[in-house]
Each structure stands twice: as structure tokens, then as C-alpha cells.
From TrEMBL:
Residues 711-721 have a biased composition (Pro residues). The keyword Nucleus does not apply. This is Arabinosyltransferase domain-containing protein. Gene3D superfamilies: 3.40.190.160, arabinofuranosyltransferase like domain (2.60.120.610). It is a multi-pass membrane protein. It comes from Pseudonocardia lutea. Keywords: Cell membrane, Cell wall biogenesis/degradation, Glycosyltransferase, Membrane, Transferase, Transmembrane, Transmembrane helix. Residues 182-625 form the Arabinofuranosyltransferase central domain.
């Protein structure tokens, strides 16, 4: 029997109170933190790699005997960072203990301490540093003391001393983020979740006045629209584009196992993603089956099917209860227009979109049935959705949009104010169990401080940048596909608010439109202003766009001339903005000349955007003239029959954009399946070869092996060594006027299967020339192609020889010297080895974030126990893309900044099967600048409270020293 209202309210309130108490206690509960100590020194100790992450240890002690210092004479007794790192690496300020005469000079974190005179006889000097003070001791007596944080950065333990018996270093790594949950922390989570479930059961039993169908009758039966949506999503799954952050998230997810927590492995000192990270844990579990691209993209497709089911079975019937088959097909079209460009891949948008639609369904259920239980479930889902990403905050918008009917339902519930408050707060509060599942409160606050300090976001009042990017023509954030749903749905939201109550249910229509507008408003709180975040609104946006189209249909607008013409005028402007975009996508998805990927859509050489605008405005103007003429004659004022409805125009535009997206990717994917596309990747995975781009790349392991032979003849340019990216090759310096000898082309270059490669660096003044000139057997030049150096970093230029060419030479015409003169290697043919032979599957490598997603068979270099690995390999994006530099920059908290100072990078260019001139990715060999042993940790686990902390992590250049 149903529980009596008063008892029901008391019991539900008590259970809600338990949930709130458990949620409040959960962040403070203890966690297990590894205590990692490194000891170095004594007889036989050798320089050892120890790149810490964060860069400073919790505490460090370094000691020496005076005998060891005197034995060295002059030089570096101990150092934690190299004195002369790779010039292209950003140095870190570490500890340096140097012997100078009869004194020991000590520098830490860039601060030089007072020198310590070395007395005669036996003595010891000790350096101690932690978060509160740094001290130098002579025979255990302090001689120099500095308050504040002067902890040095640590990349290695280095020494010039041959005898290390008098040296020792001991440090404790900072592992505050590498925590795991304890039974004492798990207990409130278990109790809280059980109490929440019990509270929902109590509420539901108390409101069970009569049986209510949860899902509409026949919801499980497939419909034709379901088949079309599922088929389109299936094609999109295997051939559609990557997002700009798929590699970023793939790197974070795949590191979860070695780090022990969800950390940002590319910046922010590997700070945890908490409190917005629970979906990464799901992706990590998913990746244990396979890290192949096609497998990792499947969850976003499944979420799309769930969202479509909710829209078609629950939302659309609520908005348009008398809808016919035409509306069903329109709903499929609007859903695809939103879902395709924004939600394929690893980003959180599909999770937020599905969660928000589920909240809408629950709120509408609560309003229709006048029950509290669906509202509690809605708030619980909203909390879980918010725990995915800051943009998930919009999941609370349906509750705000339906606030008046929701309050009316609450007043009629029979529960008192206090029980209502407790049960309504309990649902979203339970999300805390996901937000800090294995982190302490202190660690989460420190991670938030680090992210805020380093930055990377924008304030709320710069929200206009998102819309500016949406309308930027040559930016993938403003692509044609992304413009379409956003611009048209903003118009549709206005139309829905206007049309509510006119043949369309007023309450649900107004609420769904307000949810969309509140969602747009809530995006101002997101720290970044990328257009990809519009995908959070994919489900709601599809519903609003559908309502707008129906409200502007011929039947709905019968006899309404003003809204008809206003709609066409607005579509003329919005449609022209849509058609001014390009079909452009990130990284590998923009290869192979997608239809209209380099220019806006055109027909017969004429751009459609201005034609659409002019034609639309002319049609509206002509209609106004016709109406005015008929009105002046006293006749019936009717629109011309040939005039299309705004709904028809919108449907045509949406259909064209959806077909363009799916068709262009399906076409290029199939045409270039012998090279690399997402479709060829999926097909290879199905055949048991899941290694992605790696299987289609070859590596130039030795550039010197491919130098072209010189033909007999003079050379006006003397050869000199030139850096080709960590490897020196014969080359020239661009000065004066002249040319090299001719070089014979390789047969693979004559048939254009491989390019002529010249590596250039430096700069040229306007009017100066550095070029490659091709000729035939007779030596008469055929073509000349300019080589354009772009700064001090060596970059390859790849040139396909013209038909009939058999030789090539370099030509220089430089009249004025520059500070960094241009240099060029002599021409070569790349001698190639398949990449999966150079880096076999399972090889450990740093996978830079732009490319990590498409190299699933390589093992990401781990960040274990407060350190980073020192791998042999790095896989990087094309040379023109410098975005991966954050991972090696201390001011960004780059996790591999310390490791980078210990090595020299040797660049190995890669070549793509089927397109050898494309710079698809780069491989770098990391060569230690001196032999380094691996430091061995001593690990013990200890339990720490949720508020325990050991000072702050320090970001070089941003956190003050001392």
C-alpha cells in the first residue's frame, strides 16, 4: 500500500538528508596516495634521468663531503637540470652545486644562495629544500637559510665528479594527484547512492495513484525513419570526420591506466580533469577492448541512437501531438543536421546532448503527470550531465524553463517545504560521487588553481568570439555544416515562441524554445569559446528546429502574409551565411579534396551565397509588390501560388547540407581507401589491422642515404653542412647569385611516385630567390619552384618533378644579407621504411595530442609516480602545426618539459601512401644528450585526508619563486 503522505514525506526527507550528508563528506574522505622516494649517490652512482611531473619535488636533500668537492676541483658537483640542453628545448631552473676555488656555490630555482666556504679537513655540506624553506648546512649547522618555496626543478641527477662516493641526493616526488579511493571514501558513496535509490522508490510508491505508462505504446517497433537515421549514423561512424580534440582526449584516456587517474597529459602539470572526468573512465574501460578509431567512435553513435529514440518517441509527440508522417521525416532531418557535424568522436557533446534531452523528457513527464518523482530523476540526470563538462550545466535549463508548472506540481505534491528541498537537492548532489571519485578535495582545488593560473580560457563577456568563429569563412570552426543548424535554429526558436498556441501546444513549445535559448546563454560560462560546444544542444536544437519548420509550413501560415515573407527574408540572410561557409574539417578529415573544402559552394563558377541572398530578397520584394498591387485594386490579398513556404526552403537547405556532409566523406573515403581515410581505417580494423595511420606511413630513417648524385659540371655555390632536423646534410647557404651542379633524379622521382625533397631554414628578403630548377636530358630548364624558408626550424619542401625532367639543381639570387640567412640541403630522394617496422605495434612513444587518436597501436609514454618516462620516440603533427608545443613548454605546465631538456630530437619525415607530398605526421627520435641511467623509486602507500596538501605546485614563470 502507498505510504501515507506525511510518513512518506518524512521518510523521503530523511533519505534525502542522508544523500546530502554523504555527498558533503565524500570530498573530505581519505584517499590512498603513493609516497615515492628516490635515492641517488654513493660509490658507482652514475647520472640518472629523473624528469619529475610536477617539476619540483615535495622535498629534496642533496649532500656532499668536502673531500668530494675538493677532488672535483672545478665544475658541477651536483645538478638536477642540464646546463646546456637542446637549444630548441625550454630550460628549467634546477639545483646546481658548483665548486669554485675553496667555496661551494649553490643555485636553486634560479636564485643564487650565498657561497659556502669549504673549511680544511673533513666536513659535510647539505642542501635541504621544501615548500616552506631552503637551507644550506655545514656539518649539520645552518649557514644559509631562505624562507619560501625555492624548490628546484628536477629533470635528472647529474655530476661531473668521477668519484661519487661522497655525494647523495634524496627527494620525494609530488604524487598528490595519483590517488585511489579508500574503503572509508567508498562507504559514503555506496550509502549515498542506495539512499538516493530508496528515496526515489518511496516517492514513486507514494505517487502511484494509478498505473502510468513510462514509454509510449509501441515505442520499440522500428519505423522507416529509424532505419534511415541508423543507416546514416552507421555511414557517418565509419567515414565521418574526427574532431579537433579526439587526439587530446584519446591521450588522456589511454594514459588512465599508467597514471592511475584521469590527468591532462598534455598541459596543466598533468592536473586531474576532476570534477569533470567520469566519462573518461568509461572511455578507458571501452578502450581496453580496442583503441582503434572505429571502436572508440562507437559510443557517440550509440548516444546518437538513444537521443533519436527519446526525440522521436517522447519529445516530438509532446510538441506536435497531431504530427503526420511528414513531421516524422522532418524530425529525422533536423536531428541529422545537428548530430552529424557536432557529436561524432570522443568529445563530451554527445553525452551532454543525450542527458539534456533526457532531462526534458523527465520534466515534461513531471508537468504532465503532476508528480515529483520524474522531477527528482530529472535533477539527478542534470547533475550527472554537469559532471561531464562545464557545458553540462545547461541540463538544468529544462527545470528553469518549466519553473511555473514545476512549482505548481510541487505545491500539489502534499510534501512540506523542507522535505521538498531535501529531495530536490539530493538528486544533483549525488553527482559529487562521480566528480571526485578518486581525488581528494585538496587535489581538486589545486588542479583548479593550476588550470586557472595557466589559463587557456576566455571570460564570459567574450562569448561573442564563439559566434565570430562560427562566421569565419576560412576556419574549420565556421564550416558550412556547423553554421547550418545553429543559425537556422536560432531563427526557429524565435518562430517557436511566436507560434506557441497557434496550432502548436503552447506550454511544451515555449519551454523547449526557452531551454534552447538558456542553453546558449549557459555557454557563456564555458572557459573556451569553440563552436564545437554547440553540440551540447544537438538534441534540443533538433526539436526546436523541427517546431520552427512546422510553424512556417504552408498550412500553418495559410493567410498570414507577414510571417511568411518575414520568414523568407530571414532565410535569405541566414541561408547566404550558411552557403558562405566551406566544407572544411580537422586534420585527416580534411584530406583528399572534399567537395567545396577550399571554397564556398558554387555552380558553374558562380558562388551560391550571394545568389541565394539576392534571389531571396528579390522574391520577397516581388511578393510585396504583388500584394501591394492587389491591395490597391481592392482584390483579395493573397500570396502568389508559386511562392515557396519558409518551411520548404529550410527543408531543401537542410537536406542539401546533410547530403553534402555524408556524400563527400563517403566519396573520398571510398575513392582513397588504398591510402588513409577514416573509412579505410575502419575497413582495415575489420580485417584485423587496427593500427590506423601508422600502417599507411613510411619513414625516412636516414636522409643522407637518399642524396642525389651530382652530374659532371661546375657549381657556383660551395657546399656546407646544414641541419635537416637533428641530422646534418650537405647543403648551401643562400648568398650571392649562382646555382649548384645538376643532380640526377631517381627513377621513382622521374615517374612522380616520390618527390624531390629539399630541407630549408632561415629567411629571405622580398625579391630574393631560393629555388629548385628542373631540366630534361638537354639541360634546358623546364620549371623553377621557389623554396620558401620559414624561420630557424628546418622544414621539408617536397616537389614532384615535371614531366620529362631528369635532373634538378638549386638556384640562388640573394642581394642583401639577413640576420638568419636561408640554408637548404642538397636535393634528395627519400629512402623509406614502413613505419610499423620502425615503430612496431606496442612501441612506447609520446603521442602528441593532434595525432594521438589515429595511432592506436603505439603505447603512450606513461607519467607514473610523479615522473614522466624518457621514451625513444615522439610522434608529432605536421611541421606546420605547432600546437603540440604546449606539452614541452614549462609555462603551460607541459608534462614532458623536463624530459625534453635531456634529449636531442632527430626528425624523421613520414610519407603517406598514395600522396607522398603530404606532410601527414612527423616522427622524432629522442637521443639523450649524455648516457643516463633510470632512477629507481621506493614506493610506499599512505592514507591521507581529503584536505591534506603539501604546498603548491609551481608553474615556471607564473608562480612566484620564494
Amino acid at each position: 500500500m502507498p505510504v501515507a503522505p506525511r510518513r512518506r514525506g518524512v521518510l523521503a526527507a530523511l533519505l534525502g538528508l542522508v544523500v546530502l550528508a554523504c555527498a558533503a563528506a565524500f570530498p573530505f574522505a581519505p584517499v590512498v596516495q603513493p609516497e615515492v622516494r628516490y635515492d641517488w649517490g654513493g660509490p658507482g652512482a652514475v647520472p640518472s634521468a629523473l624528469p619529475l611531473m610536477p617539476y619540483q619535488p615535495v622535498s629534496l636533500t642533496a649532500g656532499t663531503t668536502c673531500a668530494a668537492a675538493r677532488a672535483l676541483g672545478e665544475g658541477t658537483l651536483l645538478a638536477t637540470t642540464p646546463a646546456a640542453p637542446d637549444p630548441r628545448a625550454i630550460p628549467l631552473e634546477g639545483l646546481r652545486m658548483e665548486v669554485a676555488g675553496d667555496a661551494l656555490r649553490v643555485t636553486t630555482a634560479g636564485v643564487e644562495l650565498d657561497p659556502v666556504p669549504l673549511p680544511a679537513g673533513d666536513c659535510t655540506v647539505e642542501f635541504r629544500s621544501d615548500t616552506t624553506a631552503t637551507t644550506l648546512l655545514l656539518d649539520d649547522a645552518p649557514v644559509v637559510s631562505r624562507p619560501g618555496d625555492l624548490r628546484p626543478a628536477v629533470a635528472a641527477v647529474l655530476t661531473d665528479a668521477r668519484d661519487t662516493s661522497g655525494l647523495r641526493v634524496q627527494l620525494t616526488a609530488d604524487t598528490r594527484f595519483q590517488t585511489t579511493i579508500t574503503p572509508l571514501k567508498a562507504a559514503p558513496a555506496v550509502v549515498g547512492v542506495l539512499a538516493l535509490l530508496a528515496m526515489v522508490v518511496v516517492l514513486a510508491r507514494g505517487e502511484r495513484r494509478h498505473r502510468v505508462r513510462v514509454l509510449p505504446r509501441g515505442w520499440w517497433r522500428p519505423r522507416p525513419t529509424d532505419l534511415v537515421v541508423a543507416a546514416t549514423l552507421a555511414v557517418w561512424w565509419v567515414s565521418g570526420p574526427v574532431t579537433v580534440d579526439d587526439g587530446y582526449i584519446a591521450g588522456i584516456v589511454r594514459d588512465r591506466g599508467t597514471s592511475g587517474f584521469v590527468g591532462n597529459v598534455y598541459r596543466w602539470l598533468n592536473a586531474p580533469e576532476a570534477p569533470f572526468s567520469w566519462f573518461y573512465d568509461l572511455y578507458y574501460a571501452w578502450s581496453q577492448v580496442s583503441a582503434a578509431t572505429v571502436w572508440m567512435r562507437l559510443p557517440s553513435i550509440l548516444l546518437g541512437l538513444v537521443t533519436w529514440a527519446l526525440l522521436s518517441r517522447c519529445v516530438v509527440p509532446r510538441l506536435l501531438p497531431r504530427a503526420g508522417r511528414g513531421v516524422a521525416w522532418l524530425s529525422a532531418l533536423t536531428f541529422l543536421a545537428w548530430w552529424l557535424p557536432y557529436t561524432l568522436g570522443l568529445r563530451p557533446e554527445p553525452w551532454v546532448a543525450a542527458g539534456t534531452v533526457l532531462v526534458v523528457v523527465a520534466v515534461e513527464r513531471a508537468v504532465a503527470l503532476r508528480r515529483v518523482t520524474p522531477l527528482v530523476l530529472a535533477l539527478s540526470v542534470a547533475g550527472v550531465t554537469t559532471a561531464v563538462t562545464p557545458g553540462g550545466l545547461m541540463a538544468f535549463a529544462p527545470v528553469l524553463a518549466g519553473l511555473v508548472p514545476v512549482l505548481r506540481t510541487l505545491r500539489r505534491s502534499g510534501l512540506g517545504p523542507v522535505p521538498l528541498v531535501l529531495v530536490l537537492l539530493a538528486g544533483p548532489a549525488a553527482a559529487v560521487f562521480l566528480m571526485v571519485s578518486d581525488q581528494s578535495l585538496a587535489a581538486m582545488l589545486e588542479a583548479t588553481r593550476v588550470r586557472t593560473l595557466i589559463g587557456g580560457g576566455q571570460p564570459w563577456y567574450e562569448e561573442f568570439d564563439r559566434y565570430a568563429l562560427l562566421l569565419t569563412q576560412d576556419d574549420l570552426q565556421g564550416s558550412l555544416a556547423k553554421r547550418t543548424p545553429v543559425l537556422l535554429t536560432i531563427l526557429a526558436a524565435v518562430v517557436a515562441l511566436w507560434a506557441a498556441g497557434r496550432r502548436i501546444p503552447a506550454g511544451p513549445t515555449r519551454r523547449i524554445a526557452v531551454v534552447f535559448l538558456l542553453g546558449l546563454a549557459s555557454m557563456t560560462a564555458t572557459p573556451t569559446k569553440w563552436t564545437q560546444h554547440f553540440g551540447d544542444l544537438a538534441g534540443i536544437g533538433a526539436a526546436v528546429l523541427l517546431v520552427g519548420i512546422v510553424a512556417l509550413g504552408r498550412r500553418a501560415l495559410a493567410g498570414r502574409t507577414t510571417p511568411w515573407l518575414a520568414g523568407l527574408g530571414a532565410l535569405a540572410v541566414a541561408g547566404s551565411l550558411v552557403l558562405a561557409g566551406q566544407n572544411v574539417w580537422p586534420f585527416v578529415s580534411d584530406w583528399w579534396a572534399l567537395t567545396w573544402s577550399t571554397m564556398p559552394p558554387f555552380v558553374a563558377g558562380i558562388e551560391l551565397a550571394p545568389v541565394w541572398l539576392v534571389a531571396g530578397l528579390v522574391v520577397v520584394a516581388a511578393s510585396l509588390v504583388v500584394l501591394a498591387w492587389r491591395r490597391s485594386g481592392g482584390g483579395t490579398v493573397r500570396l502568389p501560388r508559386w511562392l515557396p513556404s519558409p518551411a520548404a526552403v529550410t527543408t531543401v537547405l537542410l537536406t542539401a547540407v546533410v547530403l553534402l556532409q555524408v556524400g563527400s566523406f563517403a566519396r573520398t573515403g571510398w575513392q582513397h581507401r588504398d591510402s588513409y581515410t577514416l573509412l579505410s581505417d575502419a575497413l582495415s580494423t575489420a580485417r584485423g589491422a587496427p593500427c590506423g595511420l601508422q600502417e599507411r606511413l613510411s619513414v625516412e630513417t636516414d636522409p643522407a642515404a637518399g642524396l642525389l648524385p651530382a652530374l659532371p659540371g661546375p657549381s657556383a655555390l660551395p657546399p656546407e653542412p646544414v641541419d635537416a632536423g637533428g641530422t646534418e646534410l650537405p647543403g648551401i647557404r643562400a648568398r650571392g647569385t649562382g646555382d649548384t651542379a645538376w643532380f640526377a633524379l631517381d627513377p621513382t622521382q622521374r615517374d612522380r611516385s616520390l618527390p624531390v625533397v629539399v630541407t630549408v631554414a632561415g629567411s629571405l628578403r622580398p625579391g630574393d630567390t631560393l629555388a629548385a630548377e628542373f631540366a630534361g636530358e638537354d639541360g634546358e630548364p623546364l620549371t623553377r619552384t621557389a623554396l620558401r624558408p620559414d624561420g630557424p626550424v628546418p622544414r621539408d619542401t617536397r616537389l614532384l618533378a615535371p614531366e620529362g625532367a631528369t635532373r634538378v639543381r638549386l638556384v640562388v639570387d640573394v642581394r642583401e644579407p639577413v640576420d638568419i640567412p636561408a640554408v637548404a640541403t642538397l636535393p634528395r630522394v627519400p629512402r623509406l621504411t614502413p613505419m610499423d617496422e620502425v615503430l612496431r605495434p606496442g612501441t612506447e612513444a609520446i603521442l602528441d595530442w593532434p595525432v594521438a587518436f589515429v595511432f592506436p597501436c603505439l603505447t603512450p609514454a606513461p607519467l607514473p609516480l610523479g615522473t614522466t618516462a624518457l621514451p625513444q620516440w615522439r610522434v608529432a603533427p605536421p611541421q606546420a602545426d605547432d600546437s603540440a608545443g604546449i606539452t614541452y613548454a614549462p609555462s603551460y605546465g607541459g608534462p614532458f618539459a623536463a624530459a625534453r631538456t635531456l634529449v636531442t630530437e632527430q626528425r624523421l619525415a613520414t610519407y603517406l601512401t598514395g600522396d607522398p607530398t603530404r606532410d601527414a605526421a612527423q616522427v622524432y627520435r629522442w637521443v639523450p644528450r649524455q648516457p643516463l641511467a633510470a632512477a629507481v623509486p621506493h614506493v610506499t602507500d599512505r592514507t591521507v585526508s581529503g584536505w591534506a596538501h603539501t604546498g603548491r605546485t609551481r608553474v615556471p614563470g607564473l608562480d612566484p619563486v620564494g
